[in-house]
């Protein structure tokens, strides 16, 4: 919903405090269904936060990427869940309005009924159906397609090995002609200020970064429903890299370098569809 673990935790904490305050005050009006009440509170808190975040991200330095969400390996076995938290999908969701995003996530990811979503968003069921339909059409037109774990692991290994050794030809061979790289430094680490398009630009930028900040270790992790790599330099964790490939060729590269988004990555977070 929010693209940020910290923001999600803030929303949940605020929602819990509201629930706890009602219980302490003995105010049980309209809380005959605690689940519906909490869904309503969390959704409306999320909508308020989304509107604030959208304004903040308009002035973000360079491309904004979602915070890497490290999960257990079981997420890879659930194709729909893996796709719903992928970098590519979260960026598509960023192009929706807050209401469209909330309605789409509640319906398509968590399976809530239209009446439940209507209650949570203070809209009519008919209006919610329109929101979901509009968001679904928008997402379907931009829905990413990518290789499954076995293929992407081999491709990712070869790619970052080539970047570390300076093998530009290997890098070029692994990328599709329309490859795009998005790097998020948040103004705090070196990153391309605009998306890079094409194998040549991507390869040369990556090699430039590798020369200035040589890697000392590469570790596998499941992040955002995809096999990703934690890239370390002598100063510690430098970035998280995630690749998407189609027909054996890399089409999208996401590199999160903003140190604010690299905290607590060693602890897997368990997520579920419901």
The parts where pLDDT drops under 50 for at least 5 residues are: 267-274
CATH architecture of the largest domain: Roll
Under CATH, the topology of the largest domain can be stated as Nuclear Transport Factor 2, Chain: A
Query: Structurally, how many domains make up the residues?
Result: 2
How many E-type strands? Answer: 6
Terminal CA distance: 14 Å
The CATH first-level class of the largest domain comes to: Alpha Beta
Shape: elongated
In percent, how helical is the residue content? 40-55%
Order of helices and strands: HHHHHHHHHEEHEEEE
Integer average pLDDT: 87
Number of helical segments? 10
Domain RNA polymerase sigma factor 70 region 4 type: 88-138
GO molecular function, one term: sigma factor activity
Domain SnoaL-like: 157-236
Subunit structure: Interacts transiently with the RNA polymerase catalytic core formed by RpoA, RpoB, RpoC and RpoZ (2 alpha, 1 beta, 1 beta' and 1 omega subunit) to form the RNA polymerase holoenzyme that can initiate transcription.
Write the layout of secondary structure elements.
Layout: H1 5-25, H2 34-57, H3 79-84, H4 87-93, H5 98-109, H6 114-121, H7 125-142, H8 149-165, H9 168-174, E1 175-184, E2 196-197, H10 199-212, E3 217-223, E4 226-233, E5 236-246, E6 249-256
Parallel strand pairs: 1-6
Antiparallel strand pairs: 1-2, 3-4, 4-5, 5-6
Helix pairs in contact: 1-2, 2-6, 5-7, 6-7, 8-9, 9-10
């Amino acid at each position: 919903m929010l693209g940020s673990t910290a923001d999600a935790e803030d929303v949940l904490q605020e929602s819990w405090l509201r629930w706890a305050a009602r219980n302490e005050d003995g105010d049980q009006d309209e809380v005959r269904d605690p689940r519906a009440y909490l869904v309503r509170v969390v959704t409306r808190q999320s909508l308020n936060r989304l509107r604030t975040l959208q304004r903040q991200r308009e002035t973000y330095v360079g491309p904004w990427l979602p915070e890497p969400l490290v999960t257990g390996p079981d997420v890879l076995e659930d194709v729909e869940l893996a796709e719903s938290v992928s970098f590519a999908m979260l960026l598509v969701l960023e192009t929706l309005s807050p209401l469209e995003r909330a309605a789409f996530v509640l319906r398509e990811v968590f399976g809530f009924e239209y009446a439940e979503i209507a209650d949570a968003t203070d809209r009519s069921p008919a209006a919610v159906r329109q929101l979901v339909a509009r968001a679904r059409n928008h997402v379907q037109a931009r829905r990413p397609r990518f290789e499954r774990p076995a293929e992407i692991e081999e491709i990712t290994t070869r790619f970052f090995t080539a970047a570390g050794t300076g093998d530009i030809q290997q890098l070029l061979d692994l990328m599709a002609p329309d490859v795009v790289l998005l790097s998020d430094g948040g103004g705090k680490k070196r990153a391309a200020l605009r998306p890079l398009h094409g194998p040549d630009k991507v390869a040369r930028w990556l090699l430039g970064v590798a020369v200035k900040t040589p890697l000392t270790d590469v570790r596998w992790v499941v992040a955002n429903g995809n096999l990703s790599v934690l890239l370390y330099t002598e100063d510690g964790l430098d970035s998280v890299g995630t690749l998407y490939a189609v027909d054996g060729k890399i089409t999208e590269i996401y590199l999160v370098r903003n140190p604010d988004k690299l905290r607590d990555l060693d602890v897997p977070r368990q997520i579920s569809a419901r």
